Amino acid sequence: MIRIVLVDDHPVVRAGLRALIDGQDDLSVVGEADGLERALAVVGADRPDVVLMDLSLGDGKAGGAEITAAVRALPEPPEVLVLTTYDTESDILRALEAGARGYLLKDAPPAELFAGIRATARGETVLAPSVAATLVRRTTPGATTITEREVEVLELLSRGLGNKEMARELFVSEATVKSHLSHIYTKLGVDTRAGAVAAAIERRIIRA
After folding, report:
1. Alpha-carbon distance 92 to 134, whole Å?
2. Same domain, yes or no: 152 and 123
3. Mean of the per-residue pLDDT values for the chain?
4. Cα(82)–Cα(80) distance, integer angstroms
5. Pair 135, 92: CB distance under 8 Å
6. 35-57 confidence digits (pLDDT tens)
7. Pairing assessment for the beta strands 50-53 and 2-7 based on DSSP bridges
8. Distances (CA, A) of 145 to 98, 134, 184, 186, 203
9. Among 19, 66, 145, 201, which is disulfide-ready with 62 (CB 3.0 to 4.6 Å)?
10. Domain end marker among 90, 107, 138
């Protein structure tokens, strides 16, 4: 039996997932959590094989990537399979770098979700097709790749922050921020801050 913990801040979503998963003979939901502290407590107590992790947790809670990193830092940690609505490059990279084994989208058919859970429990990598395509684009020779720091700059740009505010957020100088912006403009083929944000959203580098 594969033991699963659900991490999602929507009780209705957790209830729906539990009903689906518990209908499988070899899968069992043993716990639920809606944030970091509860997730660590439940994982420590129930010793699941897989944590099914949402990325976007509201009300100022720690994000799914942060919770993933904390879960994976535990002794003998479970595997983490992300299940989210977002397939932007920034979300994908943060989740995988935090230690997630796989990344599926919430519009996946139940059969795909069940297969993903089983594969994750075996230690296999599971990626939704659009997620795999995004990662392939990043590793294609000659492709223009936005760096992790440039993604952070784009996200701050989308929030309307100025150079001084971005420098403070990123703990760098304003000159460094301007350098990042210059590289971003060149890579995205734009010449304004608004154009950079629009292009990044269109290419699913950051969320709208």
Report:
1. 9
2. no
3. 90
4. 6
5. yes
6. 899 999 999 999 999 999 999 88
7. parallel
8. 20, 11, 10, 11, 12
9. 66
10. 138
Cα 87 to Cα 206: distance, rounded to the nearest angstrom: 9
Q: State how far the Cα of 88 lies from the Cα of 131, in Å rounded to an integer.
A: 8
114 token code pair: 């069940």
Instruction: Kindly report which listed range (34-38, 101-105, 186-190) carries the lowest average pLDDT score.
Output: 186-190
The Cα 41–Cα 70 span in angstroms is: 11
- 31 within 8 A of 45, measured Cβ to Cβ: yes
pLDDT band, very low/low/confident/very high, at 203 (cuts 50, 70, 90)? confident
Q: How many domains in the chain?
A: 2
Which CATH number belongs to the domain containing residue 86 in this structure? Answer: 3.40.50.2300
What range does the domain containing 183 cover? 148-202
Same domain membership, residue 105 and residue 45: yes
Is the domain of 17 the same as that of 49?
A: yes
pTM of the model: 0.79
Same domain (yes/no): 155, 129: no
The CA-atom distances, in angstroms, between 109 and each of 1, 17, 37, 105, 196 are: 21, 12, 30, 9, 34
Four-point Cα dihedral 45, 46, 51, 52, nearest 10: -110
